[in-house]
Amino acid sequence: MMFREQGERNLIRGSLDIPVNWLYVQIRQKRLLIDRQPSGAYLFQDTPSVIDAVRNLRNHTITHLDLKICQPYKEGHQHA
After folding, report:
1. What pTM does this model have?
2. Mean pLDDT across 17-23
3. What integer pLDDT is reported at residue 7 of this predicted model?
4. What's the alpha-carbon Rg for the chain, to the nearest Å?
5. Can you name the residues that pair with 32 across neighbouring β-strands?
6. Which of 15-19, 55-59, 68-72 is predicted least confidently?
7. pLDDT, the chain, mean
8. In sequence order, what are the residues at sequence separation of 6 or more whose Cβ sits closer than 8 angstroms to the Cβ of residue 39?
9. Which residues are CB-neighbours of 20 under 8 A, at least 6 positions away?
10. Which long-range contacts (CB under 8 A, 24 or more apart) does 11-17 make?
11. Contact between 36 and 42 (Cβ < 8 Å)
């Protein structure tokens, strides 16, 4: 699942149905820890455990969520 700052709809459709602005607020306030991709997008896995964790953050069941550990680490750069 991904969302971008510019040109994105107001809601993350599908499993979450959460306003994108809410996600940006959580990132700015360091409640949602996630790396920004070089493309400008924020990516997170579309798995039941991640979706439940984001919902728990939204419902105030948890106060912080670190999705950096769910993101693959790529070292170096690719040659085309």
Report:
1. 0.70
2. 85
3. 44
4. 13
5. 65
6. 68-72
7. 76
8. 4
9. 3, 8, 9, 10, 11, 12
10. 14/46, 15/46, 15/51, 16/51, 16/54, 16/55
11. yes
Give the closest residue to 23 by CA, choosing from 53, 80, 39, 76: 53
* 21-34: average pLDDT: 93
In SS3 terms, the chain reads as CEECCCCCCCEECCCCCEEHHHHHHHHHCCCEECCECCCCCEECCCCHHHHHHHHHHHCCCCCCEECHHHCCCCCCCCCC
Length of the chain counted residue by residue:
80
Instruction: Judge whether 51 and 19 are in contact, CB under 8 Å.
Output: no
Query: What is the Cα–Cα distance from 2 to 45, expressed in whole angstroms?
Result: 8
What whole-number distance in Å separates Cα of residue 33 and Cα of residue 11?
Answer: 19
Amino acid making up residue 18: I
